[in-house]
Known about the structure:
The structure is a homodimer.
Chain A: H1 2-22, H2 25-40, H3 42-45, H4 47-53, H5 57-67, H6 72-102, H7 104-126, H8 130-157, H9 160-184, H10 190-217, H11 220-225, H12 233-236, H13 238-241, H14 244-254, H15 269-290, H16 303-332, H17 337-360, H18 366-369, H19 372-405, E1 422-424, H20 433-438, E2 444-446
Amino acid sequence: MGIQLKNKAMDVAMKIKKLGQDDPRRIIHSIKVGVALTLVSLFYYWKPLYDGFGASGIWAVITVVVIFEFTVGATLSKGLNRGLGTMLAGALGVGVDYLANLSGQKGEPFVLGIFVFLIAASATFSRFFPGIKARYDYGVLIFILTFSMVSVSGYRVDEFLTMAHQRLATILVGGAICIIVSIVVCPVWAGETLHNSIISNINKLANYLEGFGGEYFHCSDEHVTIPEKDKPFLQEYKVVLNSKSTEDSMANFARWEPRHGNFGFRHPWKHYLKIGSVARQCAYHIEALNFHLSPHQLQEPSQFRRMLEVPCKTISSESGKALKALATAMKKMTDPSPSSQLHLNAAKSAVNDLKNTLKSGTTQISDDISNLLAIIPDATVASILIDIVKSVEDLSEAVAELSLKAKFKRVSPEKPQLLHKGTIKPFVEEDDNVEAQQQPHVVITVKEIENNNDEDLRVNKKPGFLF
Amino acid sequence: MGIQLKNKAMDVAMKIKKLGQDDPRRIIHSIKVGVALTLVSLFYYWKPLYDGFGASGIWAVITVVVIFEFTVGATLSKGLNRGLGTMLAGALGVGVDYLANLSGQKGEPFVLGIFVFLIAASATFSRFFPGIKARYDYGVLIFILTFSMVSVSGYRVDEFLTMAHQRLATILVGGAICIIVSIVVCPVWAGETLHNSIISNINKLANYLEGFGGEYFHCSDEHVTIPEKDKPFLQEYKVVLNSKSTEDSMANFARWEPRHGNFGFRHPWKHYLKIGSVARQCAYHIEALNFHLSPHQLQEPSQFRRMLEVPCKTISSESGKALKALATAMKKMTDPSPSSQLHLNAAKSAVNDLKNTLKSGTTQISDDISNLLAIIPDATVASILIDIVKSVEDLSEAVAELSLKAKFKRVSPEKPQLLHKGTIKPFVEEDDNVEAQQQPHVVITVKEIENNNDEDLRVNKKPGFLF
């Protein structure tokens, strides 16, 4: 019994440790809440303050507990909502109470009752509007709360002006303490968190794509020796699939945040949702790809698979590298185009190779080809990989758009040094109409590469070292 | 200016109307909140009650505003959390205050300050545990709130036992009013909502699959005449992709709900999350399929496509019908196996046909086959459809498991009337090892069909009318 209890305690201690290690900001946040609450207790402990605010000081305590959230944006959003809701409702409560007073001793409860009902019901309904729900839900709740309190207790206590004033003042003090502690002591910015989580998601997709080729094409040995749990990249991308709700709320909170780090007040947070959505699209493709990696589908490669191996591996790894480049550029807040475009072009060129192989190479694999069924899994993988290049391109465009909107650093503003420019036409046959309509044309344009000091682009510094 | 204002007002009015029409429960909920708040105002209006509770009556108002949520489960969860949190924190507050008193006039604020800091920080940290976050987040918040209030104001007012008692009593009254109004007046059950939303999601997937064949295979005319917005089934399935967070919270709330309708107190709500996750898996496959339905990919069908048309259309529509049958069985809370198994078997049999066609039919399409690239899009569609049958099977198993756990009605308990039973072996060739490993074996087992009165199974009543 004693040992069991001890084990249980050890278990909980380990969980606590892990929770703290996974994200140390959690420990800091807990300490910050403790500090803010202890600070606000001064209202009760310190006599002069108590004399000023009276028993209303308790509202400062309530405010701190209720609005102190993990991120600055959430705290600001709740604080401003609470302040605004309280003020509006206070003013309306005074007005309604005045009206109710006019209707005499008997009529007063009825008039107040009708107003409470109407205002509570309509304000509650307004919370169903998506726009209000996303940004002002808490404000409307506080509005209903304060209005009911002011109008109802005003009927009894007859001093609600003092009450409203005290309540507002203590809320302001409580809110100010929260916001100051939240911003000054190791702030957790919703915007920065959103930025980093999008980057980490793109990196997870990249890791999968970089590892996929090796897993799918020569796996017989490796696959047995290295257990799947030592290849986390095969699972990690799955968190991207369900990332929408977190990103939505982070973006909502980020909009309340002031300038911080490299993020201005009007940083295009909404655009991150677009990037997130394109990243999910890419993750859906990877999910389809992953379906073809189940153990029983890995066996001796057929002739057909060996034929596809080189282009498919290139597509996969270059797509992964393009994503990595996008993530790095986002992290450094620089223009992503030069670095990611190189890998994207290499991936597109491999798509072209793959298509040409498929078009012309059937004679080499006549054994396989007589049984179309045997080649379908590999053909599907190839087809999904082609789709993935398309979605990596979309992601690249979305990030480039962000870099324009958010004014990411352009790489060196001096006169660009032209290294190489040209267009490689894709291989097109006469009888190719069907395919040409089905797949997007691949036109490889080697873009101007500018001379710059960016670490990521160092590989391009020697002219002619492009491919 | 006047006209603009009028237009704006009209716009808002239309939005309100739409919001109410989309889900009339929203209007009812708003009225319910109004009623509950007006009821609780009685504490202030009605003298005998006011004498009993004093100014603490305001806590009843606060409780109603704060805990009245859209669903019964959420209201119960918040109410119980609030009650429990208040009681625990009240008891702890009394204990801490007693300890602080022992340390004398000077030491008291320090002892209280230390306790407030420690308890607030550790309780805040506990909110990061996923298990606590999911079910007791609000309770911990209220715990911190009440503890701070009781210990801090106890130091000053020296009557916190009365305060704690009054606060608890008013919270109980406020909570009771909420819960009663929430349950008695047109209740919105989180459990029922979850049940219906899973059914509706499965139906959306089914609609897509039933419509896909027609869209993909003979679309040249139809596609132009019917604009995409008149085919909502092509878009509706997309909500399934991001359904996780809603389902998670619904399931959490449902666990607090008492028996309602056909759902017992221990209804396996958690299992709905499994069904939801399998449904999302199916939706990911459909997303991949949908990628091949983009307008520029629809043209004159090739020989190869015409060859695949019949089996692919059958797979798609039978999978859709199997899903429809699952949804219907869930709706009626009957055993889903008999009705869905028929369609699933038909789909599997079509998968077999498709595989045989692919294996043997290459000679007919020697024109196409010389250009493998041209057949890849159609081959991919076929391959995804085969994957979809697998995921429909998973979904069917998950629903069957639910029907066991939730004790859905077995179809007629009398002696089953055996109609037909047998096993059709799949077509297997000698040189088929690769494929046999790649694709799951298809063994069609015609199950015993029981005689019953279920509407959905009426088609099976005539013996021999099975296929």
